[in-house]
Amino acid sequence: MMIRFGTSGWRGVMGEEFTFANVRVVIQAAANYLKAKYGEAPIAVVVGYDTRFLSDRYALEAAKLLARNGIGVLLADRDAPSQALACQIIRRNCQGGINFTASFNPPRYNGLKFNAATGAPALPEVTEAIEEEVRRLMPGFSRLTTHLLDADVTRIDLQADYLAHLQDRIDFDAIRRAGLKVAADPLYGTSREYLDEILEENGIEVEGLHGYVDPYFGGVSPSCTEENLAELKAHVVATGCRLGLATDADGDRFGIVDEKGAFVHPNVILALLLRYLVEGKGWRGGVARSFTTTHLLDRIAGRHDLPLTETKVGFKYMADLYLKGRIMFGGEESACIAVKDHLPEKDGIFAGLLVAEMIAVTGRGLGDLRQELFRDYGPLTGGQRTLALTPERVKKLKALVQAPPAKLGRRKVESADTLDGLRLDFGEGRWVVVRVSGTEPLIRCYAEAETAEEVESILKKGIEAVR
Protein backbone atom coordinates (compact mmCIF):
# COMPACT_ATOMS: atom_id res chain seq x y z
CA MET A 1 0.00 0.00 0.00
CA MET A 2 0.99 3.64 -0.48
CA ILE A 3 1.76 5.68 2.65
CA ARG A 4 1.49 9.41 1.99
CA PHE A 5 1.89 12.48 4.17
CA GLY A 6 -0.94 14.87 3.30
CA THR A 7 -1.68 18.41 4.41
CA SER A 8 -0.88 17.58 8.02
CA GLY A 9 0.88 14.25 8.42
CA TRP A 10 -0.02 10.67 7.50
CA ARG A 11 -3.57 9.70 8.43
CA GLY A 12 -5.54 6.51 7.94
CA VAL A 13 -8.32 4.33 9.25
CA MET A 14 -7.13 2.16 12.14
CA GLY A 15 -7.07 -1.53 11.33
CA GLU A 16 -6.91 -0.80 7.60
CA GLU A 17 -3.96 1.34 6.49
CA PHE A 18 -3.08 2.65 9.97
CA THR A 19 -1.73 -0.51 11.64
CA PHE A 20 1.13 -1.27 14.01
CA ALA A 21 3.04 -2.93 11.16
CA ASN A 22 2.76 0.17 8.97
CA VAL A 23 3.54 2.48 11.86
CA ARG A 24 6.79 0.55 12.45
CA VAL A 25 7.80 1.00 8.83
CA VAL A 26 7.15 4.76 8.96
CA ILE A 27 9.05 5.12 12.25
CA GLN A 28 12.01 3.19 10.88
CA ALA A 29 11.95 5.38 7.78
CA ALA A 30 11.91 8.50 9.97
CA ALA A 31 14.80 7.12 12.03
CA ASN A 32 16.79 6.45 8.86
CA TYR A 33 16.07 9.97 7.63
CA LEU A 34 17.26 11.52 10.89
CA LYS A 35 20.43 9.41 10.99
CA ALA A 36 21.25 10.33 7.39
CA LYS A 37 20.65 14.02 8.10
CA TYR A 38 22.58 14.29 11.37
CA GLY A 39 25.22 11.62 10.86
CA GLU A 40 27.20 10.79 14.00
CA ALA A 41 25.77 13.71 16.01
CA PRO A 42 23.46 12.82 18.92
CA ILE A 43 19.79 12.73 17.94
CA ALA A 44 16.85 13.28 20.27
CA VAL A 45 13.16 13.10 19.39
CA VAL A 46 10.03 14.02 21.36
CA VAL A 47 7.15 11.56 20.96
CA GLY A 48 3.59 12.59 21.81
CA TYR A 49 0.04 11.35 21.32
CA ASP A 50 -3.61 12.37 21.62
CA THR A 51 -6.64 10.73 23.27
CA ARG A 52 -7.59 8.48 20.38
CA PHE A 53 -7.92 4.71 20.70
CA LEU A 54 -4.42 3.14 20.77
CA SER A 55 -2.55 6.46 20.39
CA ASP A 56 -0.58 5.80 23.58
CA ARG A 57 0.31 2.30 22.33
CA TYR A 58 1.45 3.59 18.95
CA ALA A 59 3.57 6.21 20.72
CA LEU A 60 5.24 3.67 23.01
CA GLU A 61 5.95 1.34 20.09
CA ALA A 62 7.48 4.24 18.16
CA ALA A 63 9.57 5.28 21.17
CA LYS A 64 10.99 1.76 21.57
CA LEU A 65 11.85 1.48 17.89
CA LEU A 66 13.53 4.88 17.84
CA ALA A 67 15.56 3.88 20.91
CA ARG A 68 16.53 0.65 19.17
CA ASN A 69 18.02 2.88 16.45
CA GLY A 70 20.19 4.69 18.99
CA ILE A 71 17.99 7.79 19.06
CA GLY A 72 17.31 9.51 22.37
CA VAL A 73 13.57 9.40 23.04
CA LEU A 74 11.54 11.76 25.20
CA LEU A 75 8.05 10.26 25.46
CA ALA A 76 5.14 12.36 26.74
CA ASP A 77 3.87 11.10 30.09
CA ARG A 78 0.25 11.64 28.99
CA ASP A 79 -1.73 12.79 25.98
CA ALA A 80 -0.82 16.38 25.10
CA PRO A 81 -1.60 19.12 22.57
CA SER A 82 0.52 19.19 19.40
CA GLN A 83 1.84 22.64 20.23
CA ALA A 84 3.11 21.45 23.63
CA LEU A 85 5.21 18.89 21.77
CA ALA A 86 6.56 21.64 19.50
CA CYS A 87 7.43 23.70 22.57
CA GLN A 88 9.51 20.82 23.97
CA ILE A 89 11.35 20.25 20.69
CA ILE A 90 12.49 23.87 20.78
CA ARG A 91 13.22 24.03 24.51
CA ARG A 92 15.29 20.82 24.54
CA ASN A 93 17.02 21.45 21.18
CA CYS A 94 15.76 18.16 19.78
CA GLN A 95 16.15 17.09 16.18
CA GLY A 96 12.48 16.34 15.65
CA GLY A 97 9.14 15.27 17.03
CA ILE A 98 6.63 12.52 16.25
CA ASN A 99 3.02 12.92 17.30
CA PHE A 100 0.27 10.33 17.04
CA THR A 101 -2.93 12.18 16.23
CA ALA A 102 -5.45 12.48 13.44
CA SER A 103 -6.44 15.94 14.69
CA PHE A 104 -10.09 16.61 13.76
CA ASN A 105 -10.66 13.42 11.73
CA PRO A 106 -13.39 10.97 12.82
CA PRO A 107 -12.63 8.57 15.70
CA ARG A 108 -11.85 5.63 13.41
CA TYR A 109 -8.79 7.49 12.10
CA ASN A 110 -5.36 7.87 13.60
CA GLY A 111 -2.33 9.64 12.26
CA LEU A 112 1.33 10.52 12.57
CA LYS A 113 2.78 14.02 12.36
CA PHE A 114 6.49 14.72 11.96
CA ASN A 115 7.91 17.99 13.27
CA ALA A 116 11.32 19.36 12.36
CA ALA A 117 14.02 20.58 14.76
CA THR A 118 12.45 24.05 14.53
CA GLY A 119 9.27 22.70 16.13
CA ALA A 120 7.38 23.40 12.91
CA PRO A 121 5.53 20.80 10.84
CA ALA A 122 7.91 19.21 8.37
CA LEU A 123 7.90 20.65 4.85
CA PRO A 124 7.18 18.42 1.83
CA GLU A 125 10.85 17.84 1.01
CA VAL A 126 11.22 16.15 4.43
CA THR A 127 8.05 14.07 4.34
CA GLU A 128 8.72 13.07 0.73
CA ALA A 129 12.15 11.78 1.77
CA ILE A 130 10.50 9.73 4.55
CA GLU A 131 7.89 8.42 2.08
CA GLU A 132 10.66 7.35 -0.29
CA GLU A 133 12.40 5.51 2.55
CA VAL A 134 9.09 3.82 3.43
CA ARG A 135 8.80 2.56 -0.14
CA ARG A 136 12.35 1.19 0.07
CA LEU A 137 11.74 -0.55 3.39
CA MET A 138 8.22 -1.85 2.88
CA PRO A 139 8.97 -5.06 0.92
CA GLY A 140 9.80 -7.75 3.45
CA PHE A 141 10.03 -5.38 6.42
CA SER A 142 10.04 -7.48 9.59
CA ARG A 143 7.65 -7.02 12.47
CA LEU A 144 10.60 -6.30 14.77
CA THR A 145 9.15 -8.40 17.57
CA THR A 146 12.18 -7.90 19.82
CA HIS A 147 11.88 -4.45 21.35
CA LEU A 148 13.69 -2.60 24.06
CA LEU A 149 12.16 -2.33 27.50
CA ASP A 150 10.26 0.75 28.67
CA ALA A 151 13.29 1.71 30.79
CA ASP A 152 15.13 2.71 27.62
CA VAL A 153 12.63 5.51 27.04
CA THR A 154 12.58 8.72 29.09
CA ARG A 155 9.12 10.01 29.95
CA ILE A 156 8.64 13.77 30.26
CA ASP A 157 5.95 16.25 31.21
CA LEU A 158 4.91 18.55 28.35
CA GLN A 159 2.45 20.68 30.30
CA ALA A 160 4.54 22.87 32.61
CA ASP A 161 6.85 24.42 30.02
CA TYR A 162 4.05 25.04 27.54
CA LEU A 163 1.82 26.75 30.12
CA ALA A 164 4.79 28.87 31.26
CA HIS A 165 5.33 29.84 27.62
CA LEU A 166 1.68 30.92 27.33
CA GLN A 167 1.84 32.86 30.59
CA ASP A 168 4.26 35.38 29.09
CA ARG A 169 2.25 35.92 25.90
CA ILE A 170 -1.30 36.55 27.07
CA ASP A 171 -2.51 39.48 29.23
CA PHE A 172 -4.19 37.37 31.90
CA ASP A 173 -4.35 40.38 34.24
CA ALA A 174 -6.63 42.15 31.77
CA ILE A 175 -8.86 39.07 31.46
CA ARG A 176 -9.11 38.78 35.24
CA ARG A 177 -9.80 42.51 35.77
CA ALA A 178 -12.58 42.34 33.19
CA GLY A 179 -14.26 39.61 35.21
CA LEU A 180 -14.48 37.42 32.13
CA LYS A 181 -16.18 34.10 32.78
CA VAL A 182 -15.15 31.48 30.22
CA ALA A 183 -16.60 28.13 29.18
CA ALA A 184 -13.92 25.66 28.05
CA ASP A 185 -14.64 22.59 25.92
CA PRO A 186 -11.67 20.38 24.93
CA LEU A 187 -14.01 17.99 23.06
CA TYR A 188 -12.62 15.05 25.05
CA GLY A 189 -9.18 15.87 23.68
CA THR A 190 -5.73 16.88 24.84
CA SER A 191 -6.52 20.43 26.00
CA ARG A 192 -8.08 19.27 29.24
CA GLU A 193 -5.97 20.43 32.21
CA TYR A 194 -4.23 22.83 29.82
CA LEU A 195 -6.79 25.45 28.75
CA ASP A 196 -8.90 25.22 31.89
CA GLU A 197 -5.87 25.02 34.19
CA ILE A 198 -4.09 28.13 32.94
CA LEU A 199 -7.31 30.13 33.23
CA GLU A 200 -7.94 28.88 36.77
CA GLU A 201 -4.32 29.52 37.78
CA ASN A 202 -4.79 33.14 36.75
CA GLY A 203 -7.95 33.59 38.80
CA ILE A 204 -10.33 33.45 35.84
CA GLU A 205 -13.65 31.68 36.38
CA VAL A 206 -14.04 28.64 34.12
CA GLU A 207 -17.05 26.49 33.31
CA GLY A 208 -15.82 23.24 31.80
CA LEU A 209 -17.38 20.38 29.90
CA HIS A 210 -16.14 17.24 28.11
CA GLY A 211 -12.98 17.40 30.19
CA TYR A 212 -12.31 13.67 30.23
CA VAL A 213 -10.97 11.08 27.80
CA ASP A 214 -13.40 9.48 25.38
CA PRO A 215 -11.76 7.83 22.32
CA TYR A 216 -15.14 8.06 20.55
CA PHE A 217 -15.33 11.83 21.18
CA GLY A 218 -18.98 11.69 22.15
CA GLY A 219 -19.84 9.96 18.90
CA VAL A 220 -18.76 12.82 16.60
CA SER A 221 -15.59 13.99 14.90
CA PRO A 222 -13.47 16.03 17.35
CA SER A 223 -13.69 19.09 15.11
CA CYS A 224 -14.70 22.60 16.25
CA THR A 225 -17.64 22.94 13.86
CA GLU A 226 -20.82 24.75 14.81
CA GLU A 227 -22.72 21.47 14.86
CA ASN A 228 -20.20 19.82 17.20
CA LEU A 229 -20.22 22.81 19.57
CA ALA A 230 -23.98 22.69 20.22
CA GLU A 231 -23.43 21.72 23.87
CA LEU A 232 -20.87 24.49 24.35
CA LYS A 233 -23.28 27.04 22.88
CA ALA A 234 -25.99 25.98 25.33
CA HIS A 235 -23.48 25.84 28.19
CA VAL A 236 -22.33 29.43 27.61
CA VAL A 237 -25.91 30.70 27.86
CA ALA A 238 -26.89 28.46 30.79
CA THR A 239 -23.86 29.44 32.91
CA GLY A 240 -23.75 33.14 31.99
CA CYS A 241 -20.32 33.02 30.36
CA ARG A 242 -19.09 35.82 28.12
CA LEU A 243 -17.07 33.50 25.93
CA GLY A 244 -16.89 29.85 24.94
CA LEU A 245 -13.57 28.31 23.88
CA ALA A 246 -13.18 24.91 22.24
CA THR A 247 -10.25 22.98 20.79
CA ASP A 248 -10.05 19.89 18.60
CA ALA A 249 -8.61 16.47 19.53
CA ASP A 250 -4.95 17.54 19.57
CA GLY A 251 -5.61 21.12 20.70
CA ASP A 252 -4.19 22.91 17.68
CA ARG A 253 -7.46 24.27 16.23
CA PHE A 254 -9.99 26.55 17.88
CA GLY A 255 -13.74 27.04 18.08
CA ILE A 256 -15.30 30.23 19.46
CA VAL A 257 -18.78 30.91 20.88
CA ASP A 258 -19.88 34.45 21.79
CA GLU A 259 -21.74 35.67 24.87
CA LYS A 260 -25.12 34.94 23.26
CA GLY A 261 -24.22 31.35 22.51
CA ALA A 262 -23.62 32.00 18.81
CA PHE A 263 -20.83 30.25 16.92
CA VAL A 264 -18.32 32.67 15.40
CA HIS A 265 -16.71 31.46 12.17
CA PRO A 266 -12.92 31.05 12.28
CA ASN A 267 -12.55 33.47 9.35
CA VAL A 268 -14.20 36.21 11.43
CA ILE A 269 -11.99 35.39 14.41
CA LEU A 270 -8.87 35.61 12.23
CA ALA A 271 -9.90 39.03 10.94
CA LEU A 272 -10.78 40.29 14.43
CA LEU A 273 -7.46 39.11 15.86
CA LEU A 274 -5.45 40.66 13.04
CA ARG A 275 -7.27 43.94 13.54
CA TYR A 276 -6.69 43.79 17.30
CA LEU A 277 -2.97 43.16 16.90
CA VAL A 278 -2.53 45.87 14.26
CA GLU A 279 -4.89 48.57 15.48
CA GLY A 280 -4.99 47.72 19.17
CA LYS A 281 -1.38 46.74 19.79
CA GLY A 282 0.29 48.60 16.95
CA TRP A 283 1.96 45.54 15.45
CA ARG A 284 3.58 45.82 12.03
CA GLY A 285 4.83 43.13 9.72
CA GLY A 286 3.83 40.65 7.07
CA VAL A 287 0.49 38.84 6.98
CA ALA A 288 -0.22 35.45 5.43
CA ARG A 289 -3.34 33.51 4.62
CA SER A 290 -3.93 30.19 2.94
CA PHE A 291 -5.56 29.74 -0.46
CA THR A 292 -9.01 29.09 1.08
CA THR A 293 -9.01 31.76 3.80
CA THR A 294 -11.08 34.95 4.02
CA HIS A 295 -10.03 37.99 2.00
CA LEU A 296 -10.95 40.15 4.98
CA LEU A 297 -7.28 39.66 5.89
CA ASP A 298 -6.33 41.20 2.54
CA ARG A 299 -8.50 44.22 3.26
CA ILE A 300 -7.03 44.80 6.72
CA ALA A 301 -3.46 44.28 5.54
CA GLY A 302 -4.05 46.57 2.55
CA ARG A 303 -5.43 49.42 4.64
CA HIS A 304 -2.39 49.31 6.91
CA ASP A 305 0.18 48.82 4.12
CA LEU A 306 1.19 45.38 5.38
CA PRO A 307 2.56 42.89 2.84
CA LEU A 308 0.29 39.88 2.35
CA THR A 309 1.42 36.43 1.22
CA GLU A 310 -0.91 33.69 0.01
CA THR A 311 0.12 30.08 0.74
CA LYS A 312 -1.01 26.61 -0.19
CA VAL A 313 -3.33 24.94 2.30
CA GLY A 314 -1.28 23.48 5.15
CA PHE A 315 0.13 25.20 8.22
CA LYS A 316 3.64 24.02 7.35
CA TYR A 317 3.82 26.69 4.65
CA MET A 318 2.78 29.40 7.09
CA ALA A 319 5.23 28.13 9.69
CA ASP A 320 8.00 28.40 7.10
CA LEU A 321 7.18 32.09 6.56
CA TYR A 322 7.06 32.57 10.35
CA LEU A 323 10.50 31.00 10.81
CA LYS A 324 11.94 33.19 8.06
CA GLY A 325 10.64 36.30 9.86
CA ARG A 326 8.40 37.26 6.95
CA ILE A 327 5.11 37.39 8.88
CA MET A 328 3.84 38.57 12.23
CA PHE A 329 0.41 37.00 11.66
CA GLY A 330 -0.96 34.18 9.55
CA GLY A 331 -4.29 32.43 9.38
CA GLU A 332 -6.08 29.48 7.82
CA GLU A 333 -9.86 29.18 7.60
CA SER A 334 -9.58 25.78 9.29
CA ALA A 335 -9.09 27.60 12.61
CA CYS A 336 -5.29 27.89 12.62
CA ILE A 337 -3.15 30.92 13.42
CA ALA A 338 0.52 31.88 13.47
CA VAL A 339 1.55 34.82 15.65
CA LYS A 340 5.04 36.25 16.08
CA ASP A 341 7.03 35.39 19.20
CA HIS A 342 4.87 32.33 19.87
CA LEU A 343 5.41 28.89 18.27
CA PRO A 344 5.78 27.71 14.65
CA GLU A 345 2.84 25.35 15.17
CA LYS A 346 -0.94 25.62 15.18
CA ASP A 347 -2.29 26.46 18.64
CA GLY A 348 -6.00 26.47 19.41
CA ILE A 349 -5.41 27.16 23.11
CA PHE A 350 -3.37 30.28 22.41
CA ALA A 351 -5.90 31.47 19.81
CA GLY A 352 -8.77 31.16 22.28
CA LEU A 353 -6.84 32.95 25.03
CA LEU A 354 -5.96 35.76 22.61
CA VAL A 355 -9.67 36.16 21.84
CA ALA A 356 -10.34 36.40 25.59
CA GLU A 357 -7.64 39.05 25.90
CA MET A 358 -9.14 41.00 22.98
CA ILE A 359 -12.59 41.01 24.59
CA ALA A 360 -11.17 42.04 27.95
CA VAL A 361 -8.97 44.84 26.58
CA THR A 362 -11.58 46.28 24.22
CA GLY A 363 -14.46 45.83 26.65
CA ARG A 364 -16.59 44.68 23.71
CA GLY A 365 -18.44 41.46 22.99
CA LEU A 366 -17.71 39.45 19.87
CA GLY A 367 -21.04 40.43 18.34
CA ASP A 368 -20.22 44.15 18.59
CA LEU A 369 -16.66 43.61 17.36
CA ARG A 370 -17.94 41.67 14.35
CA GLN A 371 -20.44 44.38 13.41
CA GLU A 372 -17.74 47.03 13.68
CA LEU A 373 -15.39 44.94 11.53
CA PHE A 374 -17.97 44.63 8.75
CA ARG A 375 -18.86 48.30 8.98
CA ASP A 376 -15.25 49.37 8.59
CA TYR A 377 -14.01 46.75 6.11
CA GLY A 378 -17.16 45.56 4.37
CA PRO A 379 -19.12 42.37 5.06
CA LEU A 380 -17.84 39.01 3.87
CA THR A 381 -19.15 35.60 4.83
CA GLY A 382 -17.88 32.17 3.89
CA GLY A 383 -19.03 28.59 3.58
CA GLN A 384 -17.82 25.11 2.71
CA ARG A 385 -19.22 21.92 1.21
CA THR A 386 -17.67 18.51 0.62
CA LEU A 387 -18.03 15.66 -1.83
CA ALA A 388 -16.76 12.11 -1.53
CA LEU A 389 -13.57 11.63 -3.53
CA THR A 390 -14.02 9.48 -6.65
CA PRO A 391 -11.77 8.96 -9.69
CA GLU A 392 -14.35 10.63 -11.94
CA ARG A 393 -14.53 13.73 -9.74
CA VAL A 394 -10.74 13.95 -9.54
CA LYS A 395 -10.68 13.79 -13.36
CA LYS A 396 -13.22 16.61 -13.61
CA LEU A 397 -11.29 18.77 -11.14
CA LYS A 398 -8.01 18.22 -13.01
CA ALA A 399 -9.73 19.28 -16.23
CA LEU A 400 -10.99 22.47 -14.56
CA VAL A 401 -7.52 23.25 -13.22
CA GLN A 402 -5.99 22.78 -16.66
CA ALA A 403 -8.66 24.88 -18.39
CA PRO A 404 -10.46 27.20 -15.93
CA PRO A 405 -13.93 28.22 -17.12
CA ALA A 406 -14.79 31.76 -18.19
CA LYS A 407 -18.06 31.53 -16.29
CA LEU A 408 -19.49 29.61 -13.35
CA GLY A 409 -23.22 29.57 -13.84
CA ARG A 410 -24.13 33.18 -14.65
CA ARG A 411 -21.09 34.62 -12.91
CA LYS A 412 -18.25 35.89 -15.04
CA VAL A 413 -14.81 34.77 -13.89
CA GLU A 414 -12.48 37.75 -13.56
CA SER A 415 -9.40 35.67 -12.71
CA ALA A 416 -8.38 32.09 -11.93
CA ASP A 417 -5.65 30.78 -9.66
CA THR A 418 -4.32 27.22 -9.50
CA LEU A 419 -1.92 27.52 -6.54
CA ASP A 420 -3.78 24.74 -4.67
CA GLY A 421 -6.67 23.31 -6.62
CA LEU A 422 -8.69 25.96 -8.45
CA ARG A 423 -9.93 29.36 -7.30
CA LEU A 424 -12.26 31.44 -9.45
CA ASP A 425 -12.59 35.11 -8.53
CA PHE A 426 -15.75 37.01 -9.49
CA GLY A 427 -14.77 40.43 -8.15
CA GLU A 428 -15.86 42.42 -5.07
CA GLY A 429 -14.51 39.76 -2.73
CA ARG A 430 -16.54 36.92 -4.26
CA TRP A 431 -14.71 33.68 -5.03
CA VAL A 432 -14.90 29.89 -5.00
CA VAL A 433 -12.20 27.25 -4.44
CA VAL A 434 -12.41 23.56 -5.31
CA ARG A 435 -9.57 21.26 -4.20
CA VAL A 436 -8.81 17.74 -3.04
CA SER A 437 -8.55 17.46 0.76
CA GLY A 438 -5.14 16.62 2.15
CA THR A 439 -6.56 14.97 5.28
CA GLU A 440 -9.62 12.96 4.17
CA PRO A 441 -10.87 11.29 0.94
CA LEU A 442 -12.96 14.35 0.03
CA ILE A 443 -13.23 17.15 -2.47
CA ARG A 444 -13.72 20.44 -0.63
CA CYS A 445 -15.48 23.48 -2.03
CA TYR A 446 -15.12 26.90 -0.37
CA ALA A 447 -16.78 30.21 -1.22
CA GLU A 448 -16.91 33.77 0.06
CA ALA A 449 -19.26 36.65 -0.75
CA GLU A 450 -21.17 39.47 0.96
CA THR A 451 -24.22 37.41 1.92
CA ALA A 452 -24.89 33.86 3.06
CA GLU A 453 -27.41 33.46 0.23
CA GLU A 454 -24.84 34.28 -2.44
CA VAL A 455 -22.29 31.96 -0.78
CA GLU A 456 -24.79 29.10 -0.99
CA SER A 457 -25.45 29.88 -4.64
CA ILE A 458 -21.73 29.89 -5.46
CA LEU A 459 -21.10 26.69 -3.50
CA LYS A 460 -23.90 24.95 -5.37
CA LYS A 461 -22.36 25.81 -8.73
CA GLY A 462 -18.88 24.85 -7.50
CA ILE A 463 -20.08 21.44 -6.38
CA GLU A 464 -21.98 20.92 -9.64
CA ALA A 465 -18.79 21.56 -11.60
CA VAL A 466 -17.11 18.44 -10.18
CA ARG A 467 -20.03 16.24 -9.13
Characterization of the model:
The chain has 467 residues and is an alpha/beta fold. The chain contains 15 helices and 22 strands. The longest helix is centred in the first third of the chain and has 19 residues, at 20-38. Helix 9 crosses helix 12. The protein has 3 domains: 10-161, Alpha-D-Glucose-1,6-Bisphosphate, subunit A, domain 3 (Alpha-D-Glucose-1,6-Bisphosphate, Chain A, domain 3, 3-Layer(aba) Sandwich), CATH 3.40.120.10; 169-377, Alpha-D-Glucose-1,6-Bisphosphate, Chain A, domain 3 (3-Layer(aba) Sandwich), CATH 3.40.120; 381-466, Alpha-D-phosphohexomutase, C-terminal domain (TATA-Binding Protein, 2-Layer Sandwich), CATH 3.30.310.50. A 6-stranded mixed beta sheet has the order 1-5-4-2-3-6, with helices on both faces. A hairpin with an 8-residue loop joins strand 4 (96-100) and strand 5 (109-115).
Total discrete domains: 3
DSSP helix count? 15
Helical residues, percent: 25-40%
Arithmetic mean pLDDT: 95
Radius of gyration: 22 Å
Largest sheet: 6 strands, mixed
Which residue ranges are poorly predicted, with pLDDT under 50 across at least 5 consecutive positions? none
Number of strands: 22
Which word captures the global form?
Answer: globular
